[in-house]
């Protein structure tokens, strides 16, 4: 009897050991599988899109080399772009070019400077056309545009005026940062941001009506990011450009069939002249252009 009990105890002990070993093996396999998935996900997140398509940075009214100089430098330091060209447009429309496009997949950047930096948007539109014709001849079939303030205004006017001319680079993406598309009309007391995005501005300036007349010239393949700023949650502008003006073309572009998104930044660095120095705006630019 005692021998039988001893045998049963030994059998139970052996079964327990086998069960524990099986559980431990199962847990180890599951853990390895999870780790492998996590690593794969992390690799996807950090893979940037690299191409030879230039991104053209256009400053605002009264802008200088410093207007976008800081952003380009930060993006270059982060390995997102390589600054290859500085193009200065003289008052007579002639170009002074420093550097060259190398046709390498480095997300090249081109900084455009207007010598007559307080001229009107119609002249700036012609100058943008001249720059894009030069870039076409240099081998860039398409470009991205990033415009701050009046640089964004003139970039959209270029598209509504010329669309997609065969002698100039096609505009693939356009980012407008704090651009007064509806002049300085603030419709915040008349409509919410959601209503603006759905229906357009309740009051429309002559600048906006020009866009409305020329929107059919814009290629539907051009995608847009409209960036606006406000000092705090209660503010309705970035201190210079009303929120409703910076986002004014959203409904117009959407109705035309263009892909368009908007982002609103809040805080001290969302002030008009600080938007292009804002690290959060840098991230939005990177995501829209190269992710």
Features:
Rossmann fold, 9 helices, single chain, about 290 residues, alpha/beta, 2 domains, about 45% helix, disordered N terminus, eight-stranded mixed β-sheet
Strand-helix topology:
Elements (H helix, E strand, L loop, with lengths): L1 H44 L9 E4 L6 H13 L4 E8 L5 E5 L8 E7 L6 H17 L4 E7 L1 H13 L7 E8 L3 E4 L8 H7 L6 H9 L8 E8 L12 H4 L3 H7 L3 E7 L12 H12 L1
Parallel strand pairs: 1-4, 1-5, 2-4, 5-6, 6-8, 8-9
Antiparallel strand pairs: 2-3
Helix pairs in contact: 3-4, 4-6
InterPro entries: AB_hydrolase_fold, DUF915_hydro-like
Pfam family, one: DUF915
Organism: Enterococcus hermanniensis
Report what the structure shows.
With 291 residues, this protein is α/β, with parallel strands linked by helices. The chain folds into 2 domains: 1-47; 55-290, Alpha/Beta hydrolase fold, catalytic domain (Rossmann fold, 3-Layer(aba) Sandwich). Helices cover 43% and strands 20% of the residues. The protein has 9 helices and 9 strands. It has helices spanning 2-45, 65-77, 121-137, 150-162, 193-199, 206-214, 243-246, 250-256, 279-290, and strands spanning 55-58, 82-89, 95-99, 108-114, 142-148, 170-177, 181-184, 223-230, 260-266. An 8-stranded mixed beta sheet has the order 3-2-4-1-5-6-8-9, sandwiched between helices. Helix 3 (121-137) packs across helix 4. The chain starts with a helix and ends with a helix. Residues 1-7 and 15-43 have low confidence and may be disordered.
Please state the CA-atom Rg, rounded to the nearest Å.
27 Å
CATH homologous superfamily identity of the largest domain:
Alpha/Beta hydrolase fold, catalytic domain
CATH class of the largest domain: Alpha Beta
- Which regions have little confidence, pLDDT < 50, spanning 5+ residues? 1-7, 15-43
What structural class should be given to the helix and strand makeup?
Answer: alpha/beta
CATH architecture of the largest domain: 3-Layer(aba) Sandwich
Q: Would you count the extended β strands for me?
A: 9
As an assembly, this protein is single chain
Helix and strand run? HEHEEEHEHEEHHEHHEH
Mean pLDDT: 88
From the N-terminal CA to the C-terminal CA, the straight-line distance is 76 Å
Strand content: 15-25%
Largest sheet: 8 strands, mixed
Count, helices: 9
């Amino acid at each position: 009897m005692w021998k039988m009990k001893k045998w049963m105890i030994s059998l139970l002990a052996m079964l327990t050991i086998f069960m524990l070993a099986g559980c431990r093996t199962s847990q180890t396999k599951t853990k390895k599988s999870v780790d492998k998935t996590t690593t794969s996900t992390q690799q996807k997140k950090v893979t940037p899109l690299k191409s030879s398509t230039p991104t053209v940075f256009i400053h605002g009214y009264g802008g200088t080399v410093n207007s976008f100089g800081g952003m380009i430098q930060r993006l270059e330091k982060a390995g997102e772009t390589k600054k290859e060209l500085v193009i200065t447009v003289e008052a007579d429309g002639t170009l002074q070019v420093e550097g060259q496009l190398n046709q390498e997949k480095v997300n090249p950047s081109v900084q455009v400077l207007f010598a007559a930096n307080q001229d009107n948007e119609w002249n700036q539109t012609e100058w943008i056309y001249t720059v894009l014709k030069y870039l076409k001849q240099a081998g860039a079939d398409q470009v991205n545009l990033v415009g701050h303030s009046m640089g964004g205004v003139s970039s959209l006017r270029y598209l509504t005026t010329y669309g997609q001319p065969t002698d100039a680079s096609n505009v693939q993406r356009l980012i407008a940062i704090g651009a007064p598309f509806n002049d300085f009309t603030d419709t915040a007391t008349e409509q919410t941001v959601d209503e603006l995005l759905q229906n357009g501005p309740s009051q429309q300036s002559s600048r906006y009506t020009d866009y409305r007349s020329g929107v059919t010239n814009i290629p539907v393949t051009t995608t847009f990011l409209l960036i606006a700023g406000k000092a705090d949650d209660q503010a309705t502008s970035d201190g210079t450009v009303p929120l409703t003006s910076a986002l004014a073309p959203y409904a117009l572009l959407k109705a035309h069939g263009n892909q368009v998104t908007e982002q609103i930044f809040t805080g001290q660095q969302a002030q008009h002249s600080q938007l292009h120095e804002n690290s959060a705006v840098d991230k939005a630019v990177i995501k829209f252009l190269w992710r």
